[in-house]
Amino acid sequence: MDIIRRALRDIWIVFWYRLETDERKNSDCIDVDYFLYKRWQKKLEQQRSIAFVFATIKDFNGERVFMVDELQVPSKLNRDKGLGSYLIRQIIGHAAKRQLPVVLFADPGGIGGARFNKEDLTNWYSRYGFRKEGNKLVKRP
Question: Sorted alphabetically, which SUPFAM superfamilies does this protein's record hold (predicted)?
Answer without folding.
Answer: Acyl-CoA N-acyltransferases (Nat)
